Amino acid sequence: MTSGVAGTWLALVFGLSGALGATLGGALGDRLAHRTGDKRWYPWISAGGVLISIPFVFLVYLWPTPIPALLFLSVPTIFGHMYLGPTMAMLLGMAGARRRAVASAIYAFVLNLVSMGVGPVIVGWSSDHLQASHGAAGLRYSILTLVVVATSWAAVHFLLAARTLRADLESAAIANRG
Q1: Residues sharing a CB contact under 8 Å with residue 177, sequence separation 6 or more, in sequence order
Q2: Which residues have C-beta within 8 Å of that of residue 75, sequence separation ≥ 6?
Q3: What tens digit of pLDDT does each residue of 27-72 get?
Q4: Which residue, 43, 62, 67, 79, is the most exposed by fewest CB within 10 angstroms?
Q5: Would you list the DSSP string of 1-70?
Q6: Are 93 and 104 in contact, with CB atoms under 8 Å apart?
């Protein structure tokens, strides 16, 4: 597969599946939080989505041929992007009207710094170390390991956030009134 064909496939899978996942996560979070009156559904949906994505990541990175692997990629992309809407809802709910722009900017900066700054460095470093024992497949195992570890870590933190979300929102509401 040429880089142009791979890029087209990746753009379609990530673009369509990512948009679907973000929209689905936001809509599901809003619906369940409204129906139950419990905003903890936002981090629960985020945690659930990223956890559901993990088994499919193994199919993506361990499948021997590219087209099925790219098709499998749509599943973890949908579920893995379900955190976007609920996370933004929690962030903006705590930031209040006066600080939403700054909160959004800081969130985008940190998200991009970690995912596009730190992630590739870790993948490159671990790929170099795995190359001695796994050859070119070292890159595959490096990405797979980072995705599984980072996704699991994110799920744990979404669940931890759910434990204090009610109190956090109450504190934020008091601070935003003043």
Answers
A1: none
A2: 17, 53, 56
A3: 999 999 999 999 999 999 999 999 999 999 999 999 999 999 999 9
A4: 67
A5: --HHHHHHHHHHIIIIIHHHHHHHHHHHHHHHHHHHS-TTHHHHHHHHHHHHHHHHHHHHHH-SSHHHHH
A6: no
